[in-house]
Amino acid sequence: MLVLTRKQGESIQINDDIEIKVIGIEGDQIKLGIDAPKHVDIHRKEIYQQIREENQAASQLTPNTINLLKNTKKD
After folding, report:
1. What is the pLDDT of residues 39-55, one digit of tens each?
2. HAMAP family in the record, alphabetically (predicted)?
3. Is residue 3 part of a domain?
């Protein structure tokens, strides 16, 4: 893990298209601004893990469940 020290107003650059900037510091919280292309998904880690778990659970569907979903008629 790379550990960097930044002050308010300073940035970290990742490749040519992602910039992470320290916007503010209030007590023990740091406000970050992230400038990245629209195709790059950005989530808080706990949300990202939740998405991964839900995707994994969805991929565990049985063939019967998948067939039921395919055969459901839309009105």
Report:
1. 999 999 999 999 999 99
2. CsrA (MF_00167)
3. no
